C-alpha cells in the first residue's frame, strides 16, 4: 500500500506514551513526515509537535491522518469514530494499525466513499502466506527478543540498521509490526496473520539473500508473555536468526498488561536458544539492549555495566548510548560478513 505523506498523528485520549508507541515510533524515525498531532481531552501522550485542528492540518499540507495508538486487542473506541469521520470529510485519508478494519465501521466507510478518501489498514495484508518450512536459507539474520512487550525491540533493530550501515555492513530493517510498516513502507504485521502461517510470513518478510547480507528482524511480544508468546514463537522459528539481541526494561516487575512476573534476561537467553535451535542450530546471543529511559544517566551506566558483566555480553541503550558495542560483537562473531565492510 502507498500511504500519502505528510501525516497528522492522531493520539486520541490514550492514558500514557506507551499506548501511543506507533505515533512515537513514526515521529522518532520519520520526523519529516509528521506535521502535527491531534489529541482528545485527557490524552497523556505528547509527541512534542504542534497540536493542530483538522483545518490547520489540511492547510499545512497533511495528506493522511494516522491513528498512532495501540491497545489490547487492537480495538477502535466508539468515541473516536466521529473524529475519524471528520478527518475524512476535511479531505484527509486515514491509516490505522489497529486490528479493527476502518471500513468495517459503517460511518467511516460511508464518509470515505462519499468524499473519495482512502482507508489504510496497515495491520492487514492482502498477501497469501505459505506455512513455514524451516529450511535454512542464505543470508544472515538478527532478531530482537524481549523480556516483555514494549521494551524497545523495534528501536533496537532500527538503531542497528543505522549503525551497521555506517560501518559499511549490508543490513536492512525488516518490519513485523504496524509501526515498522509505517516506518519502512513494507513488511507485514504478523500478529494479524493466522497462526498456522506466522512462521511462513516471516520467511516471506526475510527471504534468501546474499550470504553476507543482514536482515534485522523486528521482534514482537515475549516468549514468556501469556498473551503474545504464540506470535513470538512463530516469529522466532520463521526468522531462523543467526544472532539475537535481548531487549529489557529494568524498572518493571511484571509484564505489561498481566500479573506474571518479568522473566530474567538469562531465562530469555536460554529459552530463545532452546526454541530457536529448531530452525537454526547455530543461534546465539550477541548483546542486550536496555531501555533506560526511566533512569538517570549515572544509574543507566551502572545498570548496563552490571548487566554486561553478569551475562558476558555487550549491553547498551541503543537510543541513549548507541550500538557500537553490539556491532563490534556482531563483527567478531561473524567475521566474514564484517570483512565485506
Automatic annotation (TrEMBL):
Residue ranges annotated for the D-glutamate N-acetyltransferase-like N-terminal domain, each copy included: 42-124
Which Pfam families does the record associate with it? DUF1611, DUF1611_N
Gene3D superfamilies in the record: NAD(P)-binding Rossmann-like Domain, P-loop containing nucleotide triphosphate hydrolases
**Residue intervals of the D-glutamate N-acetyltransferase-like C-terminal domain:** 129-327
- Top-rank lineage group of the source organism: Bacteria
- The molecule here is called DUF1611 domain-containing protein
